[in-house]
User: What shape does this take?
Amino acid sequence: MPIPGAWYKVRMPSFRVETAHGSYHAIVERGIIGRAAEFVPARAGKLFVVSTEDVWQHQGAALARGLREVAHEVLYLPGGEENKRLAPLESLAERMVLAGGDRSSVVLAFGGGIVTDMGGFLAAIFMRGIPVIQVPTTLLAQVDAGVGGKTGVNLECGKNLIGSFHQPLAVLIDPNVLETLPEREYRAGLWEIVKAGIIREPDLFHYLSDRSSAVLAREADAVERIVADSVRMKCEVVTADERESDLRRILNLGHTFGHALEAETAYTRFLHGEAVAFGMRAAMRLGETTGRLSAGNAGQILALIARYGPIPSLQGIAAERILARLVHDKKAVRGAVHFVLPVSIGAVEIVSGIDEALVLDAIGFALS
Ligand SMILES: NC(=O)c1ccc[n+]([C@@H]2O[C@H](COP(=O)([O-])OP(=O)(O)OC[C@H]3O[C@@H](n4cnc5c(N)ncnc54)[C@H](O)[C@@H]3O)[C@@H](O)[C@H]2O)c1
Ligand SMILES: [Zn+2]
Assistant: This one.
């Protein structure tokens, strides 16, 4: 595979992820999907592009140009969190076999986080595992879902409960595709970037504060900068800790609370990034009330979250019900709920055993 050599250093950023299960590059480059064929291994059999009809309509032509020389077939997933289930993957796998798919086939997942999670999982289980190339097309998927190898689908009783770690061959991150992203999806993705700033990237945090108008206007330089910083951060964390045992948990800032909110509202009221914004408000409050975070830093974090808002109305949601959901979070290890709490701009701590009254207060604060 023509893994980029020196050229990427003079173009746009490429970050290496190294794990026990594979090493690859996540490349942030405008127009890179026009060169997608370069990332398909020379000896590969049939390439299956997994996408959704709407993503293909918006951005398929550019990818198709990049795959001109490669025999490929486009397969559609239905899209939507309610369809992030095993059943559509079984249908796609049947179609792949009928279309001549075998162990030499490769999947290219082209879409938002739902497609990268599902396409990645399809590759992980098709004939016991074939390679996947991730080509994320939402801001959230570019900075988060597309990188790191976590794949999976939902069960009736909970999100992402079936899945696998399946590291990709490469992640191709093309900021051009974000041009057609709806405003609400763009903002939801920005909150994951705010998260990156809070947990590990103070410079990114300050850039997001200082250049918020450029970021919101999707100015090219600003988008590239914040995407590249977030991707670099995620690649570093995944390289240091592939399987979410310790360091990788910092990526869950806002997610324990956020998942509870998503579950409580049946995944219909909030986008993932919006739920994370809510969750980061709660985590910020808990950081402050447990004496970890200064009032000054708390104010900065709140202001930045608000700058990329507003979060849709949280009316009618009971704090007690969110608290009850937290206990069921699958990330709770043997009953203890772990919280990622900010301690300053760019640093967090993982804490368990927090007094329930303080947790309830934090939820109440985030809901208000
Ligand atoms: N694996 C991980 O590490 C990880 C991390 C975070 C989130 N996730 C998962 O990601 C999913 C959410 O992903 P998402 O927010 O990208 O949602 P999504 O995949 O539903 O995409 C959002 C919407 O945008 C459309 N879209 C995508 N790209 C577009 C483009 N370029 N132009 C116009 N429209 C476009 C999609 O068709 C969809 O309607 C969740 O299921 C979540 O669990 C996974
Ligand atoms: Zn997330």
Summary: Residues 1-10 have pLDDT under 50 and may be disordered.
